[in-house]
Prior knowledge:
Elements: H1 21-49, H2 53-91, H3 101-121
Helix pairs in contact: 1-2, 2-3
Amino acid sequence: MSKGGERPTFLPISSPFAFSAYIKAVAALLIIAAIFTFFAFILNIFGLKAHDLHRKYFFYKVATYLSLLSVLLELISLVVFPVCFYVEMKNFGYRNWEFDWSYGVAWGATLFTFGASLLLICDKEHEEVYYKEKTIYNPPPELS
């Protein structure tokens, strides 16, 4: 406990809006998106290891949906956070403010997750078939 019986703050800012509901909601959305991305990664590995085509496409489909849902949650959180932060800062009278590097990293993670989703959506139904072709040379009739 800190002096005066107050709760210690672990955030670098000590302002009254440090524990606002929108910050908790955005953090929860990003944590859920990270969990969905992890499960999509695991299901993609299962899809790569599956030999049965039905199971393979099932794993790919679920991984695709999870990664797209993860992108949606990340986009919602990355749009809601600056809007609510702007309103909060305007109410407190701050005119100049800027985001930290972690906001840019979150946008980068969103773009990479979207890229992974696009790769999962790409043509999976086309299985390459490898076969050996035996070539038979028929000699000309004058040599037989």
